[in-house]
Amino acid sequence: MKKNYFLIRGMALLLISFLMVTNLSAQLYVNEFMASNDAALPGPQGDYPDWIEIYNAGDEAVMLGGYYFCDTLNVAEAYQIPDTYPDSVTVAAGGYILFYANKDEDLSVLNLDFKLGSGGEQVGFWNPEQAFVDSITYGPQTADTSYGRYADGENTWFIMPDYTPGATNIHTTSINETVDNISALQNFPNPFSTITNIQFTLTETDNVSIKVYDVRGTLIAELANDTYITGTHNVVWDASDMQTGYYFYTLQTSNSFITQKALIVK
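^ that's the sequence the OP posted. Answer follows.
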């Protein structure tokens, strides 16, 4: 009985530690970016670089030296932010920090070694242990217009003619605005051990892709990639062969992108 007690207690402590690390990572968000900066925002070097904003929704400042950025979801190809000048790469609690995707990483600790594709690609963000923090997969972008979450840190993204680098995102009505045509509930049950349901509703017929990623941002499974008609649909996720832990799943249509987090327990 004593052995079982220590085993259970040890597992509980391990789970608590994992949750603390996950919750800390979950406070940081890729919150806004501009992938076609023709004349909107000059950078520190006098150019007009692509830029990415990180939002810290937590209660404590976070030093981002050692974190990883990439224009794919493959951490093995990611660029590690230097910790040479920690004050320069620290984002305050409730604050924002800008990184410049201009391939001039030798000139500043805020510069990245890649540029963003205006025709559409991905942005991945990982912590120093290479655990997945956040990502966005986006489509073609309009020049001098950003793409951001509204409200800050939320799952809904909009095209933003009134870009707000380093400040709270503003949601304005525009003919260029991306109109969400999908809404999704949190998977149920959650947590789950083998089977869970992902339910979504479409306001118009569209192709829906549902993908599952582990905490490092590695694609684990594609649950759906098909055309669905207007209405509510349910996709069953069979995770019987997957290990315990947190996973992220995305729902993407022609003009919408949603990310949710699920916990598998065995």
